[in-house]
């Protein structure tokens, strides 16, 4: 790539910033007896010479020119590019040592998370475009988990997999083993575009407007093949909503591509940007419609403008949402237009949307788009899969289905392509693994982040507490409506507590003896998609052992005071308001 290609995106002012900054780096290196990295391009002397990180170096230089200090993560990216540390990863493994200092951050670019002090080990996050992997890949991941990790995997809330308890000497073996399976997890953590999500049942969903698999795959490889799209101001999420009966939560993403049908019968995508529920924002409507072929180029343009304009001096203000608040939607979109060789169509609001998703379609036995062919949604205990179970499900998919494992953002998976005649055998094989083929409303709707089992940021043991909550509710309450409960350990909200019917946010609680114990703030009334809304706090600092009874009380009040058996929990909270719910509980 020529320097002209790289710098065509910069203003003259940015070019001057970059030239001076890169010249300073070479001067410093010369003083240390090192050769220069950057040489002027004869055609366009700006000092970058096609450097792959020029986009980010210019943004960093502009930040400092404005008198703002770069955060330590930005300094780390500038001092030693995180994608260039393979030798260090190998050397640390050879000496059986874990990374120190800012290298802990750099390792995340390779999907490696050093999880001390909770676990003196790595967690490795994968990348699964559209959340789909082959049975061969599933079996291979199980083998890697047995050989180098804890013998299990977790399905995440981005339809992805994580393996944990990887030793200090085994990180390169895991990464190479994944690539042998065709799994490239570069950029799975830190300031990068995360796993690209789509409809889990894509290609077999009976109500989807479009198959999202190829778009997710194209977006996935576009990111992997464009180094300049790594090292953003902060993490970035992209989702494709094809309108399936089973789908994700696209409007919680930085870019939300939602399929709609125009009057002429063609399928386009409505574009929303800036979603991040942990910061109280859903993706805002751009007013744009794009064709499927225009989605990836548009995402690329949005990423480049975000890289130039995102905050690099305050991590708490670095997400795309804050760029939109600072510049305004129209000003941001105007910059995006400058990167496009097409103009998005305007959305006149006359497009046909897909029917809403079925909140229980991700669990149990259901028919696919092909008559007589079924899929089984296998509920998992908050994403947990032993390597034996993962290997067994891969065998079920090969012997009875389409040889694919389809992960969902609800921390479970689907096995599809099962003919009617094979359903009984497939179900029996799944149950023989110690798994279920059905779930109660509360079990199907409850998700939980890793918690302090493996995350140093978490304030509570979320998966354990979620399990106790589900068991309590199944024993003491009969629900006749779907219900979502999102249990997250910290304000980063990996389990997105504010979009659940009930959200639990981990926090410390001080007892009468001045001892700090695990507890939760309780939120109610959240939703997404056609029922989007942010949950409001009902209770603060409820001790973990008291949470099951507290949630039971709330649900009993709902059942006793709803308008009709058809009124959802979210609608009930919306009608009563949080204060109204509190009054009902006080009067009970």
Automatic annotation (TrEMBL):
Segments forming domain Nitrite/sulphite reductase 4Fe-4S: 190-340, 448-584
Gene3D superfamilies with a match to the protein in the record: Sulfite Reductase Hemoprotein, domain 1 (3.30.413.10), Sulfite Reductase Hemoprotein,Domain 2 (3.90.480.10)
Residue span(s) of domain Nitrite/Sulfite reductase ferredoxin-like: 119-179, 372-432
Keyword Iron: yes
Pfam families in the record: NIR_SIR, NIR_SIR_ferr
InterPro entries with a match to the protein in the record: Cbl_synth_CobG-like, NIR_SIR_4Fe-4S, NiRdtase/SiRdtase_haem-b_fer, Nit/Sulf_reduc_fer-like_dom_sf, NO2/SO3_Rdtase_4Fe4S_dom, NO2/SO3_Rdtase_4Fe4S_sf, NO2/SO3_Rdtase_FeS/sirohaem_BS
Entry annotated with the keyword Disulfide bond: no
Entry's Gene Ontology molecular function annotations: 4 iron, 4 sulfur cluster binding; heme binding; metal ion binding; oxidoreductase activity
Keywords: 4Fe-4S, Heme, Iron, Iron-sulfur, Metal-binding, Oxidoreductase
Matches recorded under PROSITE patterns: NIR_SIR (PS00365)
Domain of life of the source: Bacteria
Family, as annotated: Belongs to the nitrite and sulfite reductase 4Fe-4S domain family.
PANTHER family linked to this entry: FERREDOXIN--NITRITE REDUCTASE, CHLOROPLASTIC (PTHR32439)
Protein name: NirA family protein
Source species: Sediminicurvatus halobius
Originating gene: nirA
């Amino acid at each position: 790539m020529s320097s002209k290609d790289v710098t065509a995106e910069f203003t003259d002012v940015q070019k001057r910033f970059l030239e001076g900054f890169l010249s300073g780096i070479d001067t410093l290196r010369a003083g240390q007896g090192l050769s220069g990295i950057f040489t002027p391009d004869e055609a366009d002397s700006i000092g970058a010479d096609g450097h792959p990180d020029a986009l980010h170096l210019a943004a960093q230089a502009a930040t400092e020119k404005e008198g703002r200090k770069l955060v330590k993560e930005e300094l780390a990216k500038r001092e030693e590019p995180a994608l260039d540390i393979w030798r260090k990863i190998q050397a640390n493994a050879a000496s059986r040592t874990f990374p120190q200092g800012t290298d802990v951050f750099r390792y995340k670019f390779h999907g490696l998370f050093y999880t001390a002090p909770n676990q003196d080990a790595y967690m490795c996050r994968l990348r699964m475009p559209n959340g789909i992997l082959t049975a061969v890949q599933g079996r291979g991941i199980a083998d890697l988990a047995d050989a180098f990790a804890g013998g299990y995997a977790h399905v995440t809330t981005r339809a992805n997999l994580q393996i944990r308890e990887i030793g200090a000497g085994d990180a390169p073996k895991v990464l190479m083993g994944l690539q042998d399976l065709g799994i490239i997890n570069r950029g799975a953590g830190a300031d990068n575009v995360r796993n690209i999500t789509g409809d889990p049942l894509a290609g077999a969903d009976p109500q989807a407007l479009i198959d999202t698999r190829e778009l997710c795959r194209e977006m996935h490889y576009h990111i992997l093949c464009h180094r300049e799209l790594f090292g953003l101001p902060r993490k970035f999420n992209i989702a494709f909503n094809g309108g399936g009966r089973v789908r994700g939560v696209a409007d919680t993403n930085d870019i939300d591509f939602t399929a709609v049908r125009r009057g002429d019968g063609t399928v386009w995508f409505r574009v929303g940007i800036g979603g991040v529920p942990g910061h109280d924002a859903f993706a805002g409507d751009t007013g744009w419609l794009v064709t499927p072929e225009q989605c990836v180029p548009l995402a690329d343009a949005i990423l480049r403008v975000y890289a130039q304009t995102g905050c690099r001096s305050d991590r708490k203000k670095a997400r795309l949402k804050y760029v939109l608040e600072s510049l305004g939607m129209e000003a941001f979109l105007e910059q995006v237009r400058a990167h496009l060789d097409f103009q998005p169509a305007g959305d006149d609001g006359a497009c046909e949307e897909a029917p809403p998703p079925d909140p229980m379609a991700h669990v149990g036995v259901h028919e696919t788009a092909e008559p007589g062919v079924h899929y089984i949604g296998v509920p998992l205990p908050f994403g947990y899969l032993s390597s034996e179970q993962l290997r067994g499900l891969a065998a079920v998919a090969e012997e009875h289905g389409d040889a694919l494992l389809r992960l969902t953002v609800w921390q479970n998976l689907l096995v599809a392509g099962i003919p009617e005649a094979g359903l009984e055998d497939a179900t029996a094989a799944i149950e023989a693994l110690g798994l279920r083929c059905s779930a109660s409303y509360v079990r199907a709707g409850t998700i939980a982040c890793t918690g302090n089992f493996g995350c140093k940021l978490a304030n509570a043991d979320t998966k354990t507490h979620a399990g106790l909550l589900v068991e309590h509710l199944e024993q003491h309450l009969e629900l006749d409506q779907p219900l979502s409960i999102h249990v997250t350990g910290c304000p980063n909200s990996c389990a997105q507590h504010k979009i659940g019917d009930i959200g639990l946010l981990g926090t410390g609680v001080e007892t009468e003896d001045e001892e700090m114990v695990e507890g939760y703030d309780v939120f109610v009334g959240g939703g997404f998609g056609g029922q989007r809304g942010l949950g409001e706090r009902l209770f603060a600092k409820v001790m973990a052992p008291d949470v099951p009874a507290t949630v039971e009380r709330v649900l009993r009040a709902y059942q006793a005071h709803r308008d009709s058996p058809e009124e959802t929990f979210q609608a009930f909270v919306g009608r009563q308001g949080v204060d109204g719910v509190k009054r009902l509980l006080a009067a009970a």
